Amino acid sequence: MKQYIVDAFTAKPFSGNPAAVCVTEAPLPEDFMQKLAAENNLSETAFLVREGEGWRLRWFTPGTEVDLCGHATLASSFVVLNHEDKEKDVVQFYTRSGTLTVARKDGQYEMDFPVGSQREVPVTDDMEAAFGVRPVKALLGDDLVCVFADEEEIRRMTPNQTLLSKLEGRGQNVTAPGTESDCVSRSFFPKLAIPEDPVCGSAHCQIVPYWAEVTGKKEFHAYQASKRGGHLHCRLTGNGRIAICGEAALVAVSEIVAKP
């Protein structure tokens, strides 16, 4: 089984968000996929199996399978369109979040994702204790999104992982207005064995709709302010969908010799 390591939301290796992409001839047992994801110890390992005109896609963190992942979908589209179906510029993935379409455009990969629903919730002392700074607003959907007034608060914060894991949501995202981008964010997923996700595409299915409501804009340049950093270009397309676009860089190709 061939495995690719691809850095997503960047054009430069060793930045953005690394994902492992495994191309398999047949579906693998779940326990094997989970063990390989734990062995890789990246925020996501993606598994691809050809299915009709598209591909079945599943995502595993080191701790569990997830319903939606942005950077590993971008990495998977890079692998398919550059190594498996080179003649194509569009790929469809069949996932636990429905059919996801990715199109190659001018060297970038534009993903069509569902917008995440969310509601405003009270800001709590537990949030302030977990982040070390009190948010000005909090929203809860699949993830918790905490809004801050200043991007420097986000860049400087060192959240308490134990306290984060006690907050609501699958993960905890923080966001603020940006000075060189429309918004700045960071993403933490201690419940999924990911202390910090370097660049989280799926988080922007909640972050961008919030900023769209605040600003009235529909297109955003978003920056994820992790140590690796990464850029996302997002556009609300209507009907509960969002286009998330970014670049990708190949880092390594290897052969997995362990058997299920």
Give a structural overview:
The chain is globular, with a radius of gyration of 18 Å. It has two domains: 2-113 and 245-255, Diaminopimelate Epimerase, Chain A, domain 1, CATH 3.10.310.10; 119-239, Diaminopimelate Epimerase, Chain A, domain 1, CATH 3.10.310. The protein has an 18-stranded mixed β-sheet that branches. Helix content is 21%, strand content 42%. The chain is built from six helices and 18 strands. The mean pLDDT is 97. The protein has helices at residues 30-40, 70-84, 125-131, 151-156, 161-164, 204-215, and strands at residues 2-8, 17-24, 45-51, 54-60, 65-66, 90-95, 98-105, 108-114, 119-121, 137-140, 144-147, 172-177, 183-189, 194-197, 219-224, 230-238, 241-246, 248-255. It is of the alpha+beta class and 260 residues long.
Summed up:
The protein has 260 residues and is of the alpha+beta class. The chain is 21% helix and 42% strand.
Sequence-ordered SSE layout with sheet pairings:
Elements lengths: L1 E7 L8 E8 L5 H11 L4 E7 L2 E7 L4 E2 L3 H15 L5 E6 L2 E8 L2 E7 L4 E3 L3 H7 L5 E4 L3 E4 L3 H6 L4 H4 L7 E6 L5 E7 L4 E4 L6 H12 L3 E6 L5 E9 L2 E6 L1 E8 L5
Parallel strand pairs: 2-3, 4-6, 11-12, 13-15
Antiparallel strand pairs: 1-2, 1-18, 3-4, 4-5, 6-7, 7-8, 8-17, 9-10, 10-11, 12-13, 13-14, 15-16, 16-17
